[in-house]
Amino acid sequence: MPFTLPELPYPENALEPSIDAKTMNIHRTKHHQAYVDNLNKALDGQAAYATWTLDQICEQLGSIPETIRGAIRNNGGGHWNHSMFWLLMAPKGQGGAPSAELSAAIDSAFGSMDAFKKSLAEAGMKRFGSGWAWLIVKNGGALAITSTPNQDNPLMKGFVDVVGTPILGIDVWEHAYYLNYQNRRADYLGAWWDVVNWNEVNRRFAAAKQ
Fold this sequence. Notes:
By secondary structure, the protein is mainly α. It has helices at 21-43, 54-59, 66-87, 100-110, 113-126, 178-181, 185-192, 198-209, and strands spanning 131-137, 143-149, 165-171.
């Protein structure tokens, strides 16, 4: 079956003022939809990959022929990243809090929650051009912060610097924030914490540790 654009689990205006409704609409129905459409186009006629999940596409990117790999890497990554991103956010006050287990792991890896947030913001600020900043669980269970360019993600072994299971990611492409924040990426990164869905991050952390 062709890939489809997921529905949001909240109204487009539910994340205001951190993320405005117009940005949410354009980001999902234009940018994310384009990744879905172009991924389906790249996979058209490729029976060998017709049943692959998005996870398989990202994790086994190296086994895809070079003739179509670039299009699948960009658009499959874009679809995977955004599908996760929408779930990582919730209206302010509805996202819960880090679990005791996640909080302990963050303290162990980064020293404190504040230090973790600062390090993730730095990863987002230092990403030149477009890309993502991630909190991942590495093989062995340790937490790490990394960033990737364009629509790459840490599942893409052999194509990214640090491999792991993403449990939190923030989009630092300009289309994610420019209507509201213009060139103030740091302001966007700071405001984003108000709408983090920690319940989803906790779920992903627990799953990654199993």
